[in-house]
Specification:
InterPro entries: C-type_lectin-like (IPR001304), C-type_lectin-like/link_sf (IPR016186), CTDL_fold (IPR016187). This is C-type lectin domain-containing protein. This protein is α+β, with helices and mostly antiparallel strands and about 325 residues long. Helices cover about 20% and strands about 35% of the residues. The radius of gyration is 22 Å and the shape is globular. The relative contact order is 0.22.
Length: about 325
């Protein structure tokens, strides 16, 4: 039987008490995990699915006081890598605040005002065509909404923004600049997540950089986000990310239990997650707690069952055995 287990979940909790954003953050960290983080459209649907008797509520997105803007891709889980870019000469130049990316017919990139209207590309992972040139005049935020509603998203990442097929698609427009899925802002998630997902209202003004602004979701059909002074008192949404299941099970039984009742066995990809999980592990009744870590004999490597690469590691000195029937567990004491 061996071990109790950590189940990974993403459960939202609506708190109908009016607090400032900072007070809401403190409440969520003390009673749950943190203020709500939303990583993709599926997560947004889950957040809106249990729409409570409130019209709007704080979520965990806020503007940094340092105001440092970073580039992100619109398509969730596509990471922007500084060394993998195709900027045109002297770009990005941020002329009069340019926070969105556009594509030239040469497939070189320019930064451009998100408020400018122009043609745009949509990416669709479910069709053979993949790229669609939409010859409608829209702002970047309107274009993003259109692509998410009718296709998958704006094209994002170097892999999607290369190739002769894309050049052929662009050849039919007279516009010099065509919007793609690149944007930059200074906002961060309260829990430290690097998720690029944003769902702003179509009237959102990306040029307003007020460090006292926090994000809230509006409970209507689309659940779009707006910014508000962080000192205003509102209801808020917390989330839970992890639960300790105090049942002794084998690893396979634990995996089935978590997937059936919650989401999956827990994944740890960085030091912050390690510290957070090990605090919870101290409450376990067994010497070890199962995680979603597994060894594959066929391919000869360790992997997380949710698909992440094992980049962060914290093996005990004698704790690593590459064997066919091995799974990963965390020590509940010592160095975890």
């Amino acid at each position: 039987q061996c071990c109790v287990m950590f189940c990974h979940l993403y459960e939202y909790h609506y708190v109908n008490e009016e607090k400032t954003w900072t007070e809401a953050q403190q409440y969520c960290r003390e009673n749950h995990t943190d203020l709500a983080t939303v990583s993709d459209m599926e997560g947004l649907k889950r957040l809106l699915n249990k729409s409570p008797a409130m019209t709007e509520a704080w979520i965990g997105l806020y503007n940094q006081t340092d105001g440092i803007r970073r580039w992100y891709w619109s398509l969730p889980k596509v990471e922007f890598i500084e060394d993998e870019t195709e900027w045109n000469n002297n770009e990005p130049n941020d002329l009069n605040t340019e926070n969105c990316g556009s594509l030239l017919k040469s497939l070189k990139w320019n930064d451009i005002s998100c408020r400018r209207r122009g043609h745009f590309l949509c990416y669709d992972r479910n069709t053979s065509e993949k790229f669609y040139l939409i010859k409608q005049e829209k702002t970047w935020f309107e274009a993003q909404s259109y692509c998410r509603e009718n296709h998958t998203d704006l094209p994002s990442g170097l892999d999607q923004l290369q190739g002769e097929r894309l050049k052929n698609v662009l050849s039919s427009t007279d516009d010099k600049f065509v919007f793609m899925g690149l944007f930059r802002d200074s906002r961060r998630w309260s829990d430290g997540s690097s998720f690029s997902f944003r769902h702003w209202s179509k009237e959102f003004n990306d040029e307003q950089y007020n460090s006292g602004q926090c994000a809230m979701t509006v409970f209507d059909d689309e659940g779009r986000w707006k910014t508000e002074n962080c000192a205003v008192r509102k209801p808020f949404i917390c989330y839970d990310k992890l639960i300790l299941i105090k049942k002794n099970k084998t690893w396979e039984e634990a995996l089935y239990y978590c997937r059936h009742h919650h989401h999956d066995l827990v994944t740890i990809t960085n030091l912050d997650e390690q510290r957070w999980v090990q605090e919870k592990a101290k409450k376990a009744s067994t010497d070890y707690v199962w995680m979603g870590l597994r060894y594959t004999c066929t391919l000869d490597f360790w992997y997380w069952v949710r698909g992440e690469v094992v980049s962060y590691k914290n093996w005990a000195p004698d704790g690593l055995m590459d064997d066919c029937d091995m799974s990963g567990a965390m020590e509940t004491g010592g160095q975890h």
